[in-house]
Design brief:
about 400 residues, five-stranded parallel sheet, globular, Exopolyphosphatase, P-loop_NTPase, ExeA_AAA_ATPase_DNA-bind, AAA_16
């Protein structure tokens, strides 16, 4: 293959490694898309459904799935808002209000758009009085007092969904990293899903987060377990991993059997890994079909990209004491280890290292699958620590995970 042909081929690389970047084909998630299509169809027919909650480790394609579902909603003429939750309540409320305004303005049905804009103007006109109304309610405890933003959101969603139902439409709120959302706003959104469902109004929360998300929601509101269909997003089985590689590259080339076997072995069914190793093999190829040698040449490139983009950045987000705790977790040699096992590796009692444990959980670097146990949120993190031995003295990066 000459240089010009090689340049053209590489320019057609169909793989898209990176956080949240949509791949050409969402292989292995067809059933999830069918569920979303069913909810949309029921909404247009005037029926309601439960919301959806997806949980899983990082790199499983949850963000990509939410984006694809949002596009499905928009393409069918319904309203969709997409946000990534943070620990800042004010930021998250602002993101929702802005998202609602943009979704209304993008509504193509002029008559419906005008009615929805009238709702927003009405809510804005009484927003200044919400604080006065709130004060008259005299709640029993100060920490239970709903915010003015909460009142505004509840009124806005109810009135918008009433109008949307008349037109066989609905309002979909897509939330990524839902476990990060402050408790008050999370409770408000769960309450809205509950209230709108009881009133037969088309409001749906479609959320994704870490494996502990279902427990976080139930802790926020005990009835949350009945409001959502909970779905776990894990790694793809071998046949679907193979199918993903074949479909992704089918428009421009194909892999030789030995190359495909090695890619399946390397990626272990993790969507993020599939994109990384597939992209590196494609870039290393100088012929079509792509041979096993190109996969081998691309392996160190893909591994370095994963180390730099997926693991090293997360290691830097941990404080020195938290890095030592993570190093001890990795040395246990199990996907899930007990707090006692980690403490034993550190030669310290469990209470003395509890702060470091709490720190990596709050940073989204680990989660507790059950009481007294801990696991990394990123597949392969333990292997990265054992393989590279990252220094505890690296610069501490305080940016959000």
């Amino acid at each position: 293959m000459d240089n010009e042909t090689r340049a053209i081929m590489h320019g057609l690389n169909p793989f898209a490694p990176g956080a949240g970047r949509p791949p050409k084909d969402l292989a292995g998630r067809e059933h999830e898309l069918e569920i979303m299509d069913r909810i949309i169809s029921r909404t247009k027919a005037g029926y309601t459904s439960r919301g959806l909650v997806y949980s899983g480790l990082r790199g499983m394609g949850k963000t990509v799935l939410l984006l694809r579902m949002r596009d499905m909603v928009i393409n069918r003429g319904l309203l969709a808002i997409r946000m990534e939750a943070t620990t800042d309540s004010g930021h998250d409320y602002a993101a929702i209000f802005e998202g609602i305004s943009k979704a209304v303005l993008k509504q193509r049905d002029e008559g419906l758009r005008d009615r929805l804009l009238a709702v927003l103007r009405h809510i804005d006109s009484i927003s200044a009085n919400i604080g006065i109304i709130q004060a008259t309610l005299k709640p029993g405890a100060e920490d239970e007092t709903p915010s003015s933003d909460s009142f505004r959101l509840e009124m806005m969603v109810e009135e918008l969904c009433t109008e949307l139902k008349h037109d066989g439409s609905g309002l979909f709120l897509f939330i990524d990293e839902f476990q990060e959302m402050p408790a008050e706003l999370m409770g408000t959104i769960i309450g809205l899903q509950h209230a709108m469902g009881q009133d037969g109004l088309p409001f749906y929360v479609i959320a994704a987060g870490l494996p502990n998300l279902p427990g976080v929601l139930t802790k926020s509101r005990s009835y949350a377990e009945r409001l959502f269909e909970y779905r776990k997003i894990g790694r793809l089985p071998e046949n679907e991993t193979r199918d993903c590689y074949v479909k992704t590259i089918s428009r421009v080339s194909r892999f030789e059997d030995a190359a495909l076997d090695r890619l399946v072995e390397l990626s272990q069914g993790y969507p993020y890994f599939i994109q990384a190793y597939g992209s590196a093999a494609f870039e290393a190829a100088d012929s079509s079909p792509i041979p096993r040698s190109a996969v081998g040449a691309g392996e160190p490139v893909a591994r370095a990209a994963l180390d730099n983009g997926l693991y090293e950045s997360r290691w830097q987000r941990a404080r020195p004491s938290e890095r030592e705790y993570m190093r001890a977790m990795a040395s246990v040699g199990k996907d899930t280890c007990s707090s006692a096992e980690v403490a034993e590796k550190l030669h310290r009692p469990v209470p003395e290292v509890a702060r470091a444990r709490k720190g990596i959980i709050e940073a989204g670097l680990a989660y507790s699958p059950e009481r007294g146990f801990i696991a990394f949120t990123v597949p392969g993190m333990a292997d990265y620590i054992r393989r590279t031995g990252p220094l505890s003295e690296q610069t501490y990066d305080e940016s959000e995970p």
